[in-house]
Fold this sequence. Notes:
The complex is a heterodimer. Chain A has 16 helices and 19 strands. Chain A is an alpha/beta fold. Chain A has a 5-stranded parallel β-sheet. In chain A, strands 2-1-13 form a 3-stranded mixed β-sheet. In chain A, strands 5-7-11 form a 3-stranded parallel β-sheet, covered by helices on one side. The radius of gyration of chain A is 20 Å and the shape is globular. Chain A starts with 5 loop residues before the first helix and ends with a helix. The mean pLDDT of chain A is 97. Helix content of chain B is 61%, strand content 11%. Chain B has a 5-stranded parallel β-sheet with strand order 2-1-3-4-5, sandwiched between helices. In chain B, strand 1, helix 5 and strand 2 form a beta-alpha-beta unit. The model of chain B has no long low-confidence stretch (mean pLDDT 89). Chains A and B meet through helix 2 of A and helix 4, helix 5 and helix 7 of B.
Amino acid sequence: MLSNYLPMVEQRSETGPYMKESDFDMAVAKQIADLVKRYGIKFDRKTVVPADDDLADRVYQAGLELVLALGIYNQSTERRIIFSRQEVEAAVATAPAAVTLGTGRDQVVMRHLAVEGRAPAVVSSGPTGTPCSERTYPLLLQSCAQEPLVDCLGGGSVATCQGVPVVPGSPSEVAAARRDGAVAREVVRRVGRPGMHINDVATPITCLGKISGVDAEAGLRTSDAFLVAQIPELKTSYDQLSRAAYQRSIGIHCVDLMTPLIGGLSGGAEGTAVAVVAAHILGVICYSASYHIMGHMSLRWSHNTDRIGLWVFAGAGQALSRNTPVVTTAPLYTRAGLGTQQVLWEVAASAMVSMVCGLHPGGVGATGGSQTDHTSGLEARFSAEVAHACRGLSRERANEYALAFLQHYEDQAAHPDPGKPFAEIYSLEHLEPAPVWQEAYDVVRQSIIGMGIDLDKGWREVRHG
Amino acid sequence: MASLSEALQADLAGALQEGDAERAEQLTRDLLDGGVEPLVLIKQVVVPTLTVVGQRFQDFEIYLPELMLAGEAARRATSVIEEAAKKSGVETTLAGTVVLGTVEGDVHDIGKNIVGALLTAHGFRVIDIGRDVKPSRFLTAADESGCDIVAISALMTTTLPAAQRTLRLFAEQGGASRYCLIVGGGAVTKEWSQQAGAAGYAPEAAAAVALCKLLMEGRRPK
């Protein structure tokens, strides 16, 4: 049993079996297809939240077998890193079941959640893969941090620094990382929550850029986190592993970001759920992750709020909740843009399914992260309200609600309402939602309350017991 | 009643759809041995079948593994057909040659791979130079291959400067007039592509194939 697997991971990166990456891709596709068949994993469009413990356990076993069969591919060395069952099971068993995020009065403890459990979720917010303009970024970040039900603040990607495009691996990337860290730190101070957990500086894409964001006074500190990514499917690199090594050495949280692609190498819903489970296991052993981000998305439209995306949250979430101690968040990638009712129905469906299936609600990536400045605090508030209201909800009821919520948006998937960016749906002076956005929120909120979900009681219980 | 040739052509279409490369290659040989013209196989079987496969992928009826297998089967069949065409002195039927890569700093390549698979399926010769590719590598690959099109992919907004740098190098070295430079990927927009001086932009993989076909029409008289 090891407490730090990185030396072993690096050693096996150098000596593991060589494989051409294209061959590894096909091996992943074939292995997943075989496992889905062997374990009898089936997606049912009418049951986006299955209430089948045995199915959840089979999804987990398939994911575990995938890890044991193929390991993870290191793109830097073109070799597979292989693990034994004993190593994997020991790593998973000793993974953290609770992590303390942030400091002081703003500190929160994010715990492993049970299926249909009543333990409160920790709510993340922020751009979530959504690009941001340099001018608006501090404001939209502040709109998130000031929301009382938001517990953590995620960083966004800003393509310029002082008006000049940021070039990866260059001085501008370092400057942008320093800027991102300082902006986030200043924002949490400004809203009176100086100890709030900040999750990542997202502009830099190299190891050097990322770690430039560390600054105890004017940047990220050890109570915060950086993301370390797995490249779809089941791949890492020395650049990613180096981040994990640095983070481990200074004690800052390492967050395992995965983006299995629905319709990609893992195939459809079933295979993607298996890949998601495998990625969690690999994030435990390769990155010693404090917590995970279950960021699967559709290869077609980069969203995860359709039936397949929800089923993957439900299937993989239950699999991990029932078979591991890991702590996982579920970022929501929507089709619609901000300021629309459609995006709120998408948020409601995902937040509810996540909560019921053992996942903390992550940030909202409106428009699947394709449009600039489609982030605000209001959808984060809504996500929190729905998640807190759905504590203890049965999977059967959650499925009924999810199907009802889907009625409000799935037909528009091909041509979603594009919505409007932050500057058009928030007052930039007062940082309050503009009437059009507030009205959309009020309408959807009342509809959901009318369906029997008490959106006020849930968060009040969480806050006040 | 369908002739033996028609039945074999239907079998070949089935093998291509199923991504059975070995069967596709053998059926292609059988058809050529039976006297079917190489051009007929390309025009009546390979291209229409793979067009259907591409559409099914676009519609999410099949997924990436099936597309990749079909692309590989088409590549194997096309290779046999080209070989036969050369032997019989028939002009090559290649739709065009495309150098394809993801720009420096961008390690995402699934989108690029899909474009490559679809282009191959449509009869293009694809020279995939990988991901995180320096501008000079794009230029060298284009010059060495004498390609028609250079397809540049960028997923991350922070890698757009690298895409711009690649286009600039081609412009400085005269490559922009020798090759059609096209751009795509999640970070790229039509407006950006126009400002950056690209000859074309495609928002997704199927559009990239259509764009390449269109650009090749313009290069035919050359």
